[in-house]
């Protein structure tokens, strides 16, 4: 199965700053990556698919990019509600697999 | 808008079968293009896709769990269910149901149901 590796495990960022999260696939997944946001005690919420199309209602400060094996989620100016754990997931091959997550915390 | 809600026992004994049901509201489970899925999250860990069912009854499972998993659908009740047999402590996790969009990504998700395997 395809292994998705996210880095860093934890990212400390001040409100208003830019956050850049990385996701690497163990083999090429074309552009077939999505990103989710998960807050404590909540279900993951779809942010980005395809890998750069924002889901309905997702603010423009969230953007995704990449292809092949390297993908990036960028949050241009962190708001208080953005501090959470972010997961990438590939849908190029079965079984669908997720990264281990990057926790974005307040610096 | 579509909402999903898991239900079932929060405690299961080792070697027994874990059973959960997901009730879909705000939309029909028989809508084409959606693959009704189960995903789990071990405590403090990442996410693992378990399997999905299409409204027709077609299923597909994660090979790592395939021998122990059964997912079924009841279109009359707008529900789908998960059964995981021969559970051990390693199956302790929060279990989410979710709508699979074209079997690719998952949106939305239920709130999750914590299942603990313990005697």
- What's the tally of helices of chain A? 0
Cα distance spanning the termini of chain A: 35 Å
Low-confidence stretches of chain B: none
Coarse structural class of chain B? mainly beta
Secondary structure tally, helices of chain B = 0
- Shape descriptor of chain B: globular
Report on this model:
- The complex is a heterodimer of chains A (107) and B (119).
- By secondary structure, chain A is mainly β.
- Chain A is 0% helix and 50% strand.
- Chain A contains no helices and eleven strands.
- In chain A, strand 5 and strand 6 form a beta hairpin.
- Chain A is globular, with a radius of gyration of 13 Å.
- The relative contact order of chain A is 0.34.
- The model of chain A has no long low-confidence stretch (mean pLDDT 96).
- Chain B has 119 residues and is mainly β.
- Helix content of chain B is 0%, strand content 54%.
- Chain B has strands at 3-7, 11-12, 18-25, 34-41, 47-53, 59-61, 69-74, 79-84, 93-101, 105-109, 113-117.
- In chain B, strands 2, 4, 5, 6, 9, 10 and 11 form a seven-stranded mixed sheet that branches. In chain B, strands 1-3-8-7 form a four-stranded antiparallel sheet, with no helix packed on it.
- In chain B, a hairpin with a 4-residue loop joins strand 7 and strand 8 (79-84).
- The termini of chain B are far apart.
- At the A-B interface, strand 5 and strand 10 of A face strand 5 and strand 10 of B.
Name the descriptors.
heterodimer; A: 107 residues; mainly beta; seven-stranded mixed beta sheet; four-stranded antiparallel beta sheet; 11 strands; 50% strand; globular; B: 119 residues
Describe the secondary-structure layout:
The complex is a heterodimer of chains A (107) and B (119).
Chain A: E1 4-7, E2 10-13, E3 19-25, E4 33-38, E5 45-49, E6 53-54, E7 62-67, E8 70-75, E9 85-90, E10 97-98, E11 102-106
Chain B: E1 3-7, E2 11-12, E3 18-25, E4 34-41, E5 47-53, E6 59-61, E7 69-74, E8 79-84, E9 93-101, E10 105-109, E11 113-117
Parallel strand pairs in B: 2-11
Antiparallel strand pairs in B: 1-3, 3-8, 4-5, 4-9, 5-6, 7-8, 9-10, 9-11
